[in-house]
UniProtKB/TrEMBL annotation:
InterPro entries in alphabetical order: ABC_transp_permease (IPR001851)
One Pfam family named in its UniProt record: BPD_transp_2
Keyword annotations from UniProtKB, A to Z: Cell membrane, Membrane, Transmembrane, Transmembrane helix
Species whose genome carries this gene: Oceanobacillus profundus
Cellular localization per UniProt: Cell membrane
CDD domains: TM_PBP1_branched-chain-AA_like
Membrane-spanning ranges: 12-29, 58-78, 85-105, 151-172, 193-219, 231-250, 257-276, 288-306
The protein's name in its UniProt record: ABC transporter permease
Gene Ontology CC entries for this record: plasma membrane
Membrane topology qualifier: Multi-pass membrane protein
Molecular function via GO: transmembrane transporter activity
Length: 326
């Protein structure tokens, strides 16, 4: 059980980078971008091809980020300069990326199992520190038999994700970041202030997909392969992370909202892991579980709000009734 939860948190921290990208488009820009399903695979594909051809893993991961940024910029161009509907521009780019990703990979699946990935390099460096033995010895006191082989991925990726979160917070508080937020709130108003909303939208969608591709590159290296179909449903997973996080942690400030997204991504992976441990559910039920989680996360806060409103009305009626009798 502990190993399953550990794996869920480990992958959840990496998927949180993708969720932050989804947050930028859907919440900040109010842009329904479906490019995510394609750019996630683009990140994994570019990283896999680069690593197989001898490119250092860190450089390959940066190439993946740039490829995702480029894909997002094209989506933004289709919408702003080509005057294509936002939803349709994302669908068109996602469809085009399927063929592009297949071209990059050269085959449906490209293995990295025998290649040096960023996590293998990290593991070899981490093993020298002796941190794994110390943490596992500490957990052994609580009677846990099965312990993680390494804490390197979770620890380092948690730090990387927090750094990306802090950079995102800082960026959204700059002049350009405030303009991006204003576009999502009221595009007409920001245009009246002579801001170039087209360029800002292109950059915003590009940054979003850059983060998505970065997450895809890391997930691909974690699993040891890149597959042309590994991005199916990623947009739903990203939205689930955003919605769950917002429902549980709130969105009063940007810093709180981005933290909520990271928390939502981790909680989503934990929920899926727990659901798959139920006897009658199988791995093939993943998409159904994801849809169910999103529906519950969307409906539950609304139902709770309605119940609170009913209670308030009842209390007001009682107060009015008491006043009239007095």
């Amino acid at each position: 059980m502990f190993i399953s939860m550990f794996g869920a948190v480990e992958s959840g921290v990496i998927y949180a980078i993708m969720a932050l990208g989804v947050y930028l488009t859907f919440r900040v820009l109010d842009f329904p971008d479906l490019t995510v399903d394609g750019s996630f695979v683009t990140g994994a594909s570019v990283a896999a091809l680069s690593i197989v051809n001898g490119v250092p893993p860190i450089l390959a991961t940066l190439f993946a980020l740039l490829a995702g940024f480029l894909a997002g910029c094209i989506t933004g161009l289709l919408h702003t300069k080509g005057k294509v509907n936002a939803l349709l521009s994302g669908i068109l780019m996602m469809t085009a990326l399927y063929s592009i990703n297949l071209r990059i990979l050269g085959q449906p699946t490209l293995s990295m199992l025998h290649e040096t990935t960023i996590f293998k390099q990290l593991g070899s460096f981490w093993s020298v520190t002796g941190i794994d033995n110390a943490l596992n010895s500490l957990l052994g006191v609580f009677g846990l038999d099965r312990l993680p082989s390494t804490w390197a991925i979770l620890t380092v990726m948690a730090v990387v994700t927090v750094i990306i979160k802090l950079v995102t917070d800082f960026y959204l508080k700059t002049e350009v970041g405030l303009a991006l937020r204003a576009i999502g709130d009221n595009k007409r108003m920001i245009r009246s202030l002579s801001a170039n909303t087209d360029n800002l939208t292109i950059v915003g969608v590009g940054l979003s997909n850059g983060l998505v591709a970065l997450s895809g590159a890391l997930i691909g290296q974690l699993g040891g392969f890149a597959d042309v179909n590994m991005g199916i449903g990623m947009i739903v997973i990203g939205l689930a992370s955003v919605i769950i996080g917002e429902a549980l942690f709130g969105t009063k400030t940007i810093a709180r909202a981005t933290l909520a997204v990271i928390g939502g991504a981790i909680i989503y992976r934990i929920i899926v892991t727990l659901a798959l441990r139920v006897d009658f559910l199988e791995t093939g039920d993943m998409k159904f579980i994801t849809a169910a989680i999103v529906i519950i996360a969307l409906v539950a806060p609304k139902v709770h709000q309605v119940q609170r409103e009913k209670k308030r009305r009842i209390q007001k009626r009682k107060q009015l009734g008491g006043d009239s009798h007095a």
